Amino acid sequence: MTAPAITFKKRRSPIGRSRGDVVFDAILFVFLTLVFLIVAYPLYFVIISSFSDPIVVARGGVTFLPVGFTLDGYKAVFKEDTVLRGYANSLMYTAIGVSINLLLTIPTGYALSRKDFFARGPIMIFYMVTVFIGGGMMPTYLVVRALGMVNTMWALVIPGSITVYNMVVCRTFFSTNIPDELLDAAKLDGCGNTRFFTSIVVPLSAAVTAIMVLYYGVGHWNSYQSALIYLNDRKKWPLQMELRNILLLNSIQMTNPVMTPEQLKEKERLEAISEMMKYSLIIVSSVPMMVLYPFIQKYFVKGVMIGSVKG
Amino acid sequence: MAGIVDGGGFAGAMARPIASRGDSVTGINTADTRAAKPVKRRWHIRENLDLLLFCVPGIAVTVIFHYIPLYGVVIAFKKYSVRRGIFNSSWVGLANFERFFRSAHAGQIIWNTIVISAYSIITSFPAAMLLALTLNAFRHQKYRRVIQAVTYAPFFISTVVMCGMITLFLSPRVGVINTMIRSLGGTPVNFMGKAAYWRHIYVWTGVWQRMGWNSIIYFAALSGVSPDYHEAAIVDGATKMQRVLHIDIPFLIPVATILLILNFGEFFNVAFDKAFALQNDLNKSVSQIISTYVYQLGLIDNDASFSTAVGLFNSAVNAVLLLSVNALASKVSGNSLF
């Protein structure tokens, strides 16, 4: 069996890579390099600009390396109280939000992965319905308001605390990774479902827990829509809302509307810093994501696979 | 990555690709086929009562925040007043819908939504497929992994930061693009202030952000293609390009069909976040779409009933569209969702 395979492999390369193939490979290389540059350069540009002299950046003098290295942008970011407060709020909302997500999603996913669970079918249908039809923004808002959750963090963390997609990923994970024999053996020893879940299933589900933490965590960290709808009190705003204010609404307060030439120059400098601060701000706000990126990449891809293969 | 798809995975990946809506649908099918298996399990109702307890918190949240709002949709047919509440507000029949269709904005907003959606689908599909095909045909594993890591990254940038980068790069005064235009001797353009550019900016930055991420599912499908096909083709003297055209692409078609259907399911639900974040008074004529309009009506103008009516119209159109595209796809290609 092996011998012919080897000879086949040896013969394969001269046949497989004709002159046309070499050209084709070259085209692939050029195309992919182009894609790589198009995606990477804007990201790289933000990084080098955040370390460069604002005035040079504004003049277009920064291309490949930071020019006039400075940390002024970062200093400006850390002086901005609203940003720090938003950062703290976001960290808190993400931590609390993810905890609630896990508490709801993982047990539900496990219960629905059990083929001997009598309510499995009806509960699945119950969740599927929510995927296809929803009440929309205003009816949901009215419910949240009726519960007195407007202008509290609960409006951000409770309403979406179990998403069907993530629940199905958990369910699939459990039905493929927890063998029935394990349950049968535990049952013979007199172990009930709750005990089985807490002492056997949970310790075996590190991978899916990581996927859930990242899926939900990235969602909480990046979202601004529910804060926009539900939070009026600026002190409670998450980071993304403050970012929106600075990056998109340009509402950094410039305290000096004065017009002497020197002060005008100073004002220009401040404006440049505020432009500059935007680059640093983008970096600072993405730090959690960048630190976690290796894990994020690994587990997100895994999550997509679980979601796709067995849905 | 490939490992998970292997092991009978390709058929699965083909039949049930990702996306929030689809899996869920097939989830029901899986349950059905399992029930049909020869080994029948008894349901042990009393013994498994605690499993029901596992589900109670999730069910409670879903009832409160999904099912009760479903009832709340009745305010689309009422004149909602805060004082009288959902139950006691007076019925007005279809007045809210009539008002929407008679208003000067309706046509434009619906058209904006359709154009943005169609434009996004037309560009994002080929981009992701092309990336997956080239990555799959590419020989250098290491470089390939680098490209994957880099192209996935923008997906994790938040909408606000993404839009911040867009406005920063396109700023007429200090933006990179305009400094380049100036140094080439042109006059700077206020990109965000010109309605003519808005759709292109919205769509192509979307391609930039999601191309890598969207390619994952195609790439997985391609790595499930049996090497037998390629070996046979090589023996028959097929060039690499011919193999891509005649083996890889046909394998992607079923996956693409299903993803396309799922995308059509979202056709009218153009994401609120990005359109709203990129919206300003100068580009509102093209950037006002149904979801941003629903927000403006409901929370800025405080017209809950009108807002809900517009939202309901949106969902209804969406459902019809999903069903018809699904029917069409199953007729034309035999691949469909349900």
Reading off the top of the CATH hierarchy, the class of the largest domain in chain B is best stated as Mainly Alpha
CATH names the topology of the largest domain in chain A as: MetI-like fold
Tally of separate domains of chain A: 2
* Number of spatially distinct domains of chain B: 2
Number of helices of chain B: 17
Indicate the structural class of chain B: mainly alpha
CATH level-4 homologous superfamily of the largest domain in chain B: MetI-like
Which blocks of ≥5 consecutive residues of chain B have pLDDT under 50? 1-35
Name the shape of chain A in a single word.
globular
Estimate what percentage of residues of chain B fall within beta strands.
under 5%
CATH superfamily of the largest domain in chain A: MetI-like
- Give the integer mean of the pLDDT values of chain B: 82
Count of DSSP helices of chain A? 15
Q: Mind telling me the C-alpha Rg of chain B? A: 25 Å
Q: Regarding quaternary structure, how should these chains be classified? A: heterodimer
* Measured distance between first and last alpha carbons of chain B: 27 Å
Question: Could you describe the 3D structure shown?
Answer:
- The complex is a heterodimer of chains A (311) and B (338).
- Chain A has 311 residues and is mostly helical.
- Chain A contains 15 helices and no strands.
- Helix content of chain A is 77%, strand content 0%.
- The longest helix of chain A is centred in the C-terminal third of the chain and has 49 residues, at 261-309.
- The radius of gyration of chain A is 27 Å and the shape is globular.
- Chain B has 2 domains: 2-41 and 94-332, MetI-like (MetI-like fold, Orthogonal Bundle); 43-93, no CATH class.
- Chain B contains 17 helices and 2 strands.
- A two-stranded antiparallel sheet of chain B has the order 1-2.
- At the A-B interface, helix 1, helix 2, helix 3, helix 5 and helix 6 of A face helix 2, helix 3, helix 4, helix 7 and helix 8 of B.
